[in-house]
Amino acid sequence: MQALPRPVPGRSVSHGLFYQAHYQRALQRCEDGVLSRIGLRMPSKSQSTSLGSEDAFMREVLKRYFGDFLPENTSLETTLSIFSKQTVEPGSVLWRAGEPCSYCVCVTEGTLHAMQPSRTAGKADRLACIAGPGDFSGFLAMLNHFPYEHTVLVPEEAEDDEGACQMLVLQKNKYQALLLSDPPFAQALLRGFLRQISYECRELSRLANE
């Protein structure tokens, strides 16, 4: 085993065993695993499930989020119609932290990484969240008229050879138009997003207390 470095003068904590680079990488992988399990993850449509086609998977995702709140005269088909489909290649950045929010996305295949910018010059951004199939990203900024908090991108090295990320896109201006043209429908979307936030906050609280 590599000898541990001697304590650095003037520092209260020496660079010991768990400061070695390979341990830091292992800890990062553990943290990534926790982040990827927060919320209620849907199975990938490429996995062996009873959901069938891509459209069936998308309808199931939307039903999970909004089905309990949709007005009686609003179908899942109508809900799906307000989203557009998009495929983003590995390495692509959807938005950067601090940019005005113009849309949110729901992953239907692949992975997105949300990166927290470092406040220290020269330090790399830190992974804050992993979004997989069935997860939304960017909706909190859209609902609150805030800039994006994180930089969201498709990772270069996708797990399990996922490659490109497929997603549903909801434009902010389309949601704002719904607030005027169909308030009950827009409110159903809002309630679905708020419920998901409560699930995630509850899960984070549980993890913090373990």
UniProtKB/TrEMBL annotation:
- SMART domains found in the cross-reference section: cNMP (SM00100)
Locate the Cyclic nucleotide-binding domain: which residues?
66-196
Q: Which Gene3D superfamilies match?
A: Jelly Rolls
Question: Per its UniProt entry, which superkingdom is the organism in?
Answer: Eukaryota
InterPro entries documented for this protein: cNMP-bd_dom, cNMP-bd_dom_sf, RmlC-like_jellyroll
Q: Could you identify this protein by its name? A: Cyclic nucleotide-binding domain-containing protein
